[in-house]
Here is the input.
Amino acid sequence: MPETALTTDLLCNEAKAFSDIVSQSPEPSLFRVTDGKAVGTHLEHKFRLHLRERYTFIEGNSANGIDFPSLGVDMKVTSIRQPQSSCPFKSARQKVYGLGYGLIVFVYDKTDDDASKTAILRITDTVFVDASRTADFQMTRGLREIIKNKGNIDDLVAFLSDRNLPVDDIGLRNLAEEIMTNKPKQGFLTISNALQWRLQYGRIIEKAGVETGIRSVYKGPHS
Here is the structure.
């Protein structure tokens, strides 16, 4: 049994090593598989196994909702062709103040080799997003601009109302009052309203290693 406890830094180090291994290891079980969820589940299970062999950590389940609850980090796997995924909706505050946990995001490009009947999964990017940067980019940029320009509660309520946040009028005003006293940090996700949040990762791929709180863990070749 491993004795070393997993930390966020170790998670990122292993995510880098894992990305390199995956990119160089043809996968017969994924040949001709077009379901992105199946590919994502395969990589998630494989990465957990990789970690289990080396570290002790609490594994997430449907009750606590994220993959590494002791680290406050969730794992996402997405295709470079449409880098997005869903996550549970908790409250409208998540779009303003972040999801409440960080993300380790593996972005892959899948091709099939007919000769060997294997799938090639190249990891193009692996990015760690600190919890403080997981709010919506346009939402936080607009709110921060209003505060910078001496806006008041009514300005904030109007801005939030225009964004069709899933919250009632009382909740909207309460949120606006909170924003006045606790200015949100600039987020870098694109979060679409739905029964589940739809997270889009194009900007974090672009900003990885450039913006504070968005770590470029692994950079592979792009098509």
